[in-house]
Structure formats: C-alpha cells, structure tokens
Amino acid sequence: MATPQVRQRNPFKYQSEIPELDQDAPDRILDEQEQENIVNELQKENQRLEAMYARLGVIVMSVSIFLQFLAFLGITNDANFLSRAFNVLHILLHLHAITLIPGQHAAFLRDITPRAPPFLPTQLLVLLQPITALLQAEDVSWVQLSPPVLATLVAWVCLNTIEEGKRGVEALGGLMYEAKGA
Predict the structure, then answer these.
(1) Could you tell me if 106 and 99 are in contact, meaning their C-beta atoms sit under 8 angstroms apart?
(2) Where are the transmembrane segments (predicted)?
C-alpha cells in the first residue's frame, strides 16, 4: 500500500539566506535588473578596452608615419621615384587608418575626409612595395619593407577587436529575457 506524501511548507527566504544557492550557477535565472547590470558592466568594460585598443592603434600608426616621414626626408636625390612614391603612399594610408579608428584623436582628419573608404581594400595597397621589390628582384632588406606592413596589421587587429567587442555586447543585449518574479 502506498503511503501518502505529506507536502512540507517552505516559507519564502531571501537568496542570501539560502546557502546552497550559488550565484554563479549556470541554471540560475537572472531578473531584468541583474541582466541590465551585467550588460551595463560589460559595455563599460568594452568601452575601456575599445579606448585602449584605439590608443594602441593610433600610437603604432603615428610612429609608422613618423618613420616613413624620416625615411622620405632621408632619401637621396638619386633614389628612384618609386621609393618616394611608396613613402607618400604609406603616410597617406596610415593617416587613413587613423581616421577609421574610433575616438576623438583624429577628429580633424575625419573633417577633411568625411567619406573615407573602408579599411581593408585601401590598406592592401601597403603590400605594393614588397611585391614590387620582389618583382624587380631588388636587394631590399625586409627590415625596410616590414614596418608599414606590420603597422597596418596592428591597426587591422585593433579595428577588428573593437568591432568584435561591439558586436558581442550588442548580441548579449539581444539575449536579455523577461523573468517576472525571478
């Protein structure tokens, strides 16, 4: 014969009074305020990281522009036209990359070029100098050719990281759910 089960009454308890309730449990349901707090904290952290990556990108591109300018000034008069043209091209491409990095650091450049083309198609032009050197079989060291390419690579990583962070926070905001009474 089956014994009847007696239902035990459990009074309401606050979360802090329940020791077995783990705040980090994966099946824990967050209420709207907790979700909003988490998203806001992640947005603040993303903004902080975005500013850090923007500074890094601008610093690297500025150093590269400075080095390209010094190289341009150091080119002798008997140097070929391509050396000067590539230096000017790299300076312009790095200025373009700085305008695409978010922040107030390049507001004056954005005013000059309000409709700048996207990063990747224009920055691939940086590869023209190494390709030209290889095709002409010039005896040029990679030490001379690599700084503009590496600076462009750093700027691309910074821009991608910033965009990925923005997309991640937006996607997280889209995952918020309603949990009435949670």
Answers:
(1) yes
(2) 53-75
Determine the longest span between alpha carbons in the chain, in angstroms. 108
Q: Write down the pTM of the prediction.
A: 0.68
Nearest Cα to 94, choosing from 130, 148, 52, 56? Answer: 148
Per-residue pLDDT of 47-98, as tens digits, reads 999 999 988 988 998 998 898 888 888 776 666 777 788 888 888 888 888 8
Task: Evaluate the CA torsion angle 111, 85, 63, 137 in order and state its sign.
Answer: positive
SS3 readout for 39-73: HHHHHHHHHHHHHHHHHHHHHHHHHHHHHHHHHHH
Domain assignment present for residue 61? The answer is: yes
State the average pLDDT over residues 111-139: 73
Nearest CA among 157, 159, 140 for reference residue 86: 140
* Parent domain of 157: 30-174
Whether 100 maps to a domain, the answer reads yes
